[in-house]
């Protein structure tokens, strides 16, 4: 069969309707129960039976025949964010405080549309295609849960994408090798001795200690990491005390470290831990630090890149994209098998995670074509 399938308007129209429904009914990471039911229902209507995997939420389903060739996986995430929507869309979120502010409704609807298209050509597939509807991307748990459940078994390669508001519709952002950063999250508690604000000498002020740590930690990036090595250390939340005349006994702060190189990653983490340890010791205080597991850096496979670039150039404008220090748990898949991840331009004014974030539905033909035609080409490549 041909590697090029045109995406018909009726498929796009149904995808738009599906996205609008999912957008109006968002669910948080790990709580995508109704979204899971909806995806399952639509797949069954297409004659596609989901695999029986030990998953609480999320759906994995196959079409084709592994006896004819390799298995190629297509992945879309499906969770929403704890954000109060501030758009005036007719299909705005009906769940107060929960919003599809990262476009995962667009990703899920695109993959459902691709499943519809590819199912019609199932008899001619040169192998098997696996549809992966992944939960909990925003909390960095979903990919690991699906991997543990066996989603990557016998998979030769995996592809995915994310919408990109600052790219015009009709543009696909593309980059070989490093694309998105490794994500490390930290939570720190500085433990001092509380006292009256007028008698600081009788206590051990954790606010001063925490302030020193936050300020000094910035020198880790500027003075210990080469300017050519991308890295960020951000403290994003700090909390201590609850009134004006009491020095508290402890201070809490948390944040994130973003890197691309594993050696740099470990160096920044160690220097940050040393900064905390040495500063608290200087002020006679103690500390607790928790590292919350994040994603590795996302590195696209260069061999797949040649194929993907050739495929997308047939139906979209190809644009080289730069590194982004955002994280993406698709990286967990490509840490184990070859994979490729692109950005689909949606040409909208607000960035991910903004209460006014939107997706331009005109981007659907490009997203669906990416899934469909790239998967067909990869089947031929690995056959």
TrEMBL record:
Pfam families: M20_dimer, Peptidase_M20. Keywords: Amino-acid biosynthesis, Diaminopimelate biosynthesis, Hydrolase, Lysine biosynthesis, Manganese, Metal-binding. GO terms for molecular function: metal ion binding; N-acetyldiaminopimelate deacetylase activity. Gene3D superfamilies: 3.30.70.360, Zn peptidases. Signal peptide: none annotated. It comes from the Bacteria. Residues 186-278 form the Peptidase M20 dimerisation domain. The Mn(2+) ion enhances activity. Its cofactor is Mn(2+). InterPro entries: Amidohydrolase, Bact_exopeptidase_dim_dom, Peptidase_M20, Peptidase_M20_dimer. The keyword ATP-binding does not apply. This is Amidohydrolase.
């Amino acid at each position: 069969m041909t590697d090029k399938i045109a995406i018909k308007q009726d498929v796009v129209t149904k995808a738009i309707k599906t996205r609008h429904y999912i957008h109006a009914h968002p669910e948080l990471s790990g709580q995508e129960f109704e979204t899971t039911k909806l995806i399952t229902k639509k797949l069954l209507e297409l004659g596609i039976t989901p695999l029986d995997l030990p998953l609480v939420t999320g759906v994995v389903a196959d079409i084709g025949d592994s006896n004819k060739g390799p298995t190629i996986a297509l992945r879309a995430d499906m969770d929403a964010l704890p954000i109060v929507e501030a758009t005036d869309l007719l299909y705005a979120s009906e769940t107060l405080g929960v919003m599809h502010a990262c476009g995962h409704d667009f990703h899920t609807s695109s993959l459902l549309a691709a499943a519809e298209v590819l199912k019609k050509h199932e008899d001619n597939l040169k192998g098997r295609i696996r549809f992966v509807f992944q939960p909990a991307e925003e909390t960095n748990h979903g990919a690991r849960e699906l991997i543990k459940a066996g989603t990557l078994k016998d998979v030769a390669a995996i592809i995915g994408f994310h919408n990109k508001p600052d790219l015009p519709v009709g543009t696909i952002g593309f980059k070989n090798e490093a694309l998105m950063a490794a994500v490390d999250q930290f939570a720190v508690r500085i433990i001092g001795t509380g006292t009256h604000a007028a008698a600081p000498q009788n206590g051990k002020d954790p606010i001063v200690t925490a302030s020193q740590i936050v300020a000094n930690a910035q020198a880790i990036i500027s003075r210990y990491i080469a300017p050519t090595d991308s890295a960020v250390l951000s403290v994003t939340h700090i909390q201590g005390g609850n009134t004006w005349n009491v020095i508290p006994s402890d201070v809490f702060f948390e944040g994130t470290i973003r890197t691309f190189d594993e050696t740099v990653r470990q160096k920044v983490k160690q220097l940050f831990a040393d900064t905390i340890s040495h500063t608290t010791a200087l002020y006679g205080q103690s500390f607790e630090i928790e590292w919350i597991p994040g994603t590795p850096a996302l590195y696209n496979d260069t061999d797949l890149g040649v194929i993907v670039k050739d495929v997308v150039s047939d139906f979209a404008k190809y644009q080289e994209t730069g590194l982004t220090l955002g994280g993406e748990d698709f990286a967990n898949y490509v840490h184990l098998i070859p994979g490729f991840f692109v950005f689909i331009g949606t040409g909208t004014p607000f960035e991910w995670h903004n209460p006014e974030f939107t997706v331009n539905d005109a981007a659907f033909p490009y997203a669906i074509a990416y899934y469909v035609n790239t998967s067909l080409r990869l089947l031929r490549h690995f056959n």
